[in-house]
Amino acid sequence: MHFSGLTNYVAIFSDITDIKRSQQKLQHMVQHDALTGLANRSFLNAQLERAIAVAQRHRSMLAVAFIDLDRFKSINDCMGHPAGDELLQRFAERLQSSVRKVDLVARISGDEFVVLIEDVVKKEDALIAVKKLMEVFTDSFLISGQELRVTGSIGVSVFPDDGENSLSLMRNADVAMYSAKRNGRNTYEFYREDMSVAMLEHVLLENALRGALQREELSLVYQPQINIKDGRIIGAEVLLRWCYPQVGNVSPDVFIPMAENNGLIHAIGAWVLEHACLQVKSWQSKGLTIGRMAINVAAPQLMHINYIRDVEKILLRTGVSPQSLEFEVTESSIIEDTEQAIRQIERVRALGIEFAMDDFGTGYSSLSYLKKLPINRLKIDRSFVSNLPYAKDEAAIAEAIIAMSKALELEVIAEGVESAEQAMFLLNHGCAEAQGYYYSKPVSAVEIEKMMIAGNIFKYLKDGAA
Ligand code: C2E
Ligand code: CA
Ligand code: CA
To answer: How far is CA 270 from CA 213, 265, 273, 378, 454, in A?
Structure first.
């Protein structure tokens, strides 16, 4: 057979284009994220280094915007991973179309995106660009036939002010993003130096919390719950305290969210339940009854698959009667997956434990969903109590909650009662139970034991004020 030189030449030529094409393809694969087609982390880093060099030469600025979707995990958990993936793809498209051609958009991990904004002349330019970025959250997404409103938190760092290399710019944009999350999400923040300090403190504290149980730094205090009419103690809420020697007392409003985030809440929550039960038993052995012991339960605890089993074990181990326990859950913890929350509450109630809805009025409660919830009691949030009876709006809300509880045949208690006027208002409007500084701050087991022995020590307070 005879091959012409020319044919051979063509063959080699097409080989080269193939190689070139597959090289380009390979390069694209190496530089981009397979799911969204956006730049990946390593390509972003290379581009950021290059952009920094350019900015240095031209004495110009650039900005790094770090974007994190809020609560993406729960979307994934509730709607499934394919829906989560689809959302990421739609979001990536929208993000890409919201920036200028020169700006690089990257996806650096699960639900984290970065936009590299070049050619920034003054900080205001970056601000305009970031405000434009926030607009990607305005319209909802249509995912698997469901309309989804997605929000995100954006943190921004600017070269050269907030960092001189890609590492520090990325880290500080991340710190700013984290600060935006802590400021209630769905917002943006530009990096400030004091953010790093706050972040460092947070990380150190979170690490310290990991050892708090072993080092026996946790303790419990009890705040009495009172029958307003006769001043008798009808129960107590158990509240957790953490004394970390290096800093002193850390507020549960600070460390409980940390524990929820890093999973420690399961061990800590079990510890609280066990020790509260042991306390109830110890009082019983002295012939004292606290009535009901109210225990705060965080959403991740309630939703955990092993939760019912763990509660059951503690009940058995401590021998406490479940009828003397009441779990407090917040509205917001139930809203994320209402159906599953209802199932879990029903399982716990089957053990004999009652439920109260904590911080009531601050969440999304609609009457229709309240009716479905298997709870026994509403706990009026202290924000509606603190300005009673003078603030009209709050008085109206408190009244409405009491009326709602009556209509739904639920019991009702008010928290944060600080004055006789507040107690009287509540009583006159049909709320017979209260808890708050007016009666007592949270106190040690020994202190509340004294109150239990003394009986209705709060009666005179009320009578005196009435
Ligand atoms: P919470 O469940 O709403 O607890 C009531 C908080 O209000 C307590 O703060 C209590 O000290 C405070 N308080 C009580 N009476 C008054 C009053 O008259 N006026 C004012 N201004 N405040 C009053 P604390 O102990 O700092 O607890 C804060 C939050 O930490 C609790 O809010 C609860 O959400 C969480 N927490 C505390 N202990 C635990 C726990 O063992 N497990 C879980 N999951 N969360 C807990
Ligand atoms: Ca509570
Ligand atoms: Ca509360």
So the answer is: 11, 8, 5, 24, 31
